[in-house]
Design brief:
Elements (H helix, E strand, L loop, with lengths): L3 E11 L6 E5 L9 E9 L3 E7 L6 E8 L5 E8 L9 E7 L6 E8 L9 E9 L3 E4 L10 E8 L5 E2 L4 E6 L4 E7 L7 E5 L3 E10 L11 E4 L1
Parallel strand pairs: 5-17
Antiparallel strand pairs: 1-8, 2-7, 3-6, 3-8, 4-7, 5-6, 9-16, 10-15, 11-14, 11-16, 12-15, 13-14
């Protein structure tokens, strides 16, 4: 079964000012057995302490990246696998302190391996055009893996990278999110198009159903 984004099932929220949390509500009911993938960001005044929803699904941190050099922001990916079916959940990211730059992106995918966490991750930061996470490691080992990418730059002009489908771009906080489902396994990076500016970018891969595998959550910093 191929991994697909459930039609219409994506949402995002940009927090105004500072605060201890940010939340987004899924547009419609979610289906049992699917996966919710979440991107979260805030500035270094605080840190991301957790993600939860009001329907009792369990979220795990798939990748944590603290870029202290270029943009001074946390970028993280969280997910809840094998979710319960319910009316539209509200998903909340919580922070230590009251940081600014609060962003949350939520998506619902079907067809993933419901027994596994992510397979690979990548993260990077720089000061140039066209942000890239670098290749996901380990390299995807099966056809049809989901690649979720989340990035930002200080220009707020990021657009979708080659081979990806755009989820959201938000000029106010400089963030952008996208995904692709690889037809054929192989080296892959999260990439965005943007003018020269400081940036940070992460990418996480998930295997399709019946593929098995998965690895423990990871922390990366710069």
């Amino acid at each position: 079964m191929a991994i697909t984004l459930v039609s219409g099932q994506k949402a995002n929220t940009i927090g105004v000012g500072t605060g201890p949390s940010v939340a987004a509500m899924m547009p419609a009911s979610v289906t049992a057995g699917n996966r919710i993938v979440v991107g979260v960001s805030c500035n270094d005044v605080g840190a991301i302490t957790g993600v939860a929803d009001d329907k009792g699904n369990s979220y795990v941190r798939e990748l944590q990246f603290d870029d202290t050099v270029q943009v001074g922001r946390w970028l993280e990916c969280w997910s809840a696998k094998n979710i319960g079916g319910s009316i539209a959940p509200t998903i909340t990211a919580s922070f230590s302190g009251t940081p600014g730059g609060r962003t949350i992106v939520i998506t619902e995918f079907t067809g993933d391996d419901i027994t596994a966490a992510h397979e690979g991750v990548a993260s990077a930061a720089g000061n140039s055009t066209n942000p890239s996470s670098g290749n996901v490691s380990p390299t995807p080992t099966v056809d049809g893996e989901l690649i979720f990418a989340f990035g930002l730059n200080t220009n707020g002009d990021l657009t979708v990278g080659a081979g990806y489908t755009l989820l959201f771009t938000e000029a106010a906080e400089g963030t952008a999110s996208e995904y692709q489902v690889q037809g054929t396994k192989g080296a892959v990076a999260g990439t965005f198009v943007g003018a020269a500016a400081p940036w940070a970018c992460i990418a996480v891969s998930f295997k399709p159903a019946t593929a098995g595998g998965g690895t423990k959550p990871m922390f990366r910093g710069s």
